[in-house]
Amino acid sequence: MLFRELNIIEPILEALKTEGYTEPTPIQTKAIPPLFEGRDLLGCAQTGTGKTAAFAIPILQGLAQEYRNAKGKRQIKALILAPTRELAIQIEDSFKAYGKYLNLKTLVVYGGVSQHPQTRSLSSGIDILVATPGRLLDLVNQKYIRLNQVKYFVLDEADMMLDMGMLPDVKRIIKLIPEIRQTLFFSATMPDEIVKLSGSILNRPVTVSITPVSSTVDVIEQSVYQVDKVNKINLLVHLLKNKSIVSALVFSRTKHGADKIVKALDRAGLQAQAIHGNKSQNARQLALKNFKERKTRILVATDIAARGIDIEELSHVFNFDLPEVPETYVHRIGRTGRAGLGGIAIAFCDQEEKLLLQDIQKLTSKAITVVGDHPFPWNEKLQLTTSKSVAAGGRNKKTSYTKSSSTKKKNVFKSYVK
Ligand code: AMP
Q1: Which residue has a Cα nearest atom 11 of ligand 1?
Q2: Which CATH number does 3-210 carry?
């Protein structure tokens, strides 16, 4: 399948060529035709699948065709809501890249920075607005933004918005946009509240489901190091001293923890930067930019960077702390292995995190190699048990958690005792 076969107009095809895209990804193949027909869409897809282009291309094409000859000041015709500032910026970049040869103006607005440059751009008129919910409402309340001409509405990473407590703002925004519109709703997981929200804002949507979040990207090589809590930093330093690790994104559960890791790495002569919610927006963007441009080799992040953020050819993801919610593990490691490239995900598991690891195992149904052979091993052995084997009191010897074909469907894992 080629992009040309999807009836995409020449200027967008040209821009895709410039980006180096030759073939549409599965979500693009499935979503673009019904979106061209004006259908609403419910997309169950994680980042890394090419979902941004899947919604950006039809919107750009629709706007280019409908409003080619429009006169007067530009009005906001497309609104894209994203949960984090970094993701919003990335979406704006995509619209600009794919719409490079079109006469359309895109702007991104988000909080944490001065609103003046944003309001200046708004006053000259824009066609496509990418926004985080808080700043958008703020600017609407100050009358810098009117949403009454919106024809295309995209809600991206809806489940993350739920996690971040943004749904009340999102609902307020939905009340401000016309009921007659095309709505595109993307969520990696579909918890009850998200199902309810999608049901209330979508009109007979086409559903496109790509790689559910529980099926970890196959190309990622995963391993878990058994390490005592106090030794995690020593192990991280030890591993990062290996120069073959080109770029490493290290996830910490807390902001304070992220700062501590950066300091400790610094003391060990490993330069790193942190990105989390206590940093100013400028510091966050700079840290991300330096990392993307390979000026910094190590970025330490809280889950602010677990979703949506696209880093080309990121080689390693470290889970310094295991996340409380197993889906978060999948989002975190999904920062590597993007666009089909390989990647390595290394998790640290201390004694108190055994249950978290079990939950991850249950969700992903993938083999995670246990590495016991390193300079900072546990003084006790890692024991992984499934509810079934716990109930049976049984334990099997195995050196890695692997799904045997007979247990495949039952999602049952063997316990591990070294
Ligand atoms: P997304 O899921 O939208 O974050 O996209 C993941 C990555 O895939 C981004 O780096 C995109 O630039 C890239 N990408 C999107 N569509 C294609 C395509 N058709 N061919 C190759 N790469 C793509």
Answers
A1: 50
A2: 3.40.50.300
